[in-house]
Design a protein that fits this description.
- By secondary structure, this protein is an alpha/beta fold.
- The protein has one domain: eRF1 domain 2 (Nucleotidyltransferase, domain 5, 2-Layer Sandwich), CATH 3.30.420.
- The protein contains five helices and seven strands, in the order E-E-E-H-E-E-H-E-H-H-E-H.
- A five-stranded mixed beta sheet has the order 3-2-1-6-7. Strands 4-5 form a two-stranded antiparallel ribbon.
- Helix 2 packs across helix 3.
């Protein structure tokens, strides 16, 4: 059995393969999203739109209509994170379809893990074996290995 470990955050994803508990993490690729590191002001070109209320204010003054900004429902940074989660999901779907892996362990901060979970197709969700709710993308391979759940190695081939 082959296990794929995905260590990701909003801007970077590292993929590892393992075939046994005692085996080392074998790098299997990376994905990066340079836009994810940008500020909101660098991703959008102008201010949110303005909306004027139609009802007269309680003071009774005519012509004094309140106005407020729209938007805020979904920021450009959030949109970029969702897009990157879909890119990771697509890479996992291709690997699953080509039978390059038998189980997947996802490691990401809880907020990004939720976005990733939403982006995964059913075929990939069926091989998710474990989720680790930690942001480990900037940690060493040894730290990543220490956070892998022991049960993820059940039924993996042991070196002969």
């Amino acid at each position: 059995m082959r296990m794929r470990i995905v260590v990701a955050d909003r801007s970077e994803a590292r993929f590892y393969d393992m075939v046994s508990f005692t085996g080392a993490l074998q790098p299997a690729g990376t994905l990066t999203d340079a836009k994810a590191r940008l500020h909101e002001r660098d991703l959008v070109s102008d201010r949110p739109g303005r909306v004027f209320d139609h009802a007269a204010p309680p003071s009774g003054r005519r012509g004094a209509v309140a106005h407020h900004g729209t938007g805020g429902e979904r920021s450009a940074r959030e949109h970029e994170a969702e897009s990157f989660a879909r890119e990771i999901a697509k890479a996992l779907e291709v690997a699953t379809r080509e039978h390059r892996l038998d189980r997947i362990v996802l490691m990401a901060a809880p907020a990004f893990l939720g976005l990733l979970r939403e982006a995964l197709p059913r075929t990939v969700k069926s091989v998710i074996f474990a989720e680790v709710h930690k942001d480990l993308v900037h940690q060493t391979d040894d730290v990543v290995r220490q956070h892998l759940p022991q049960e993820a190695f059940r039924d993996l081939a042991t070196p002969g």
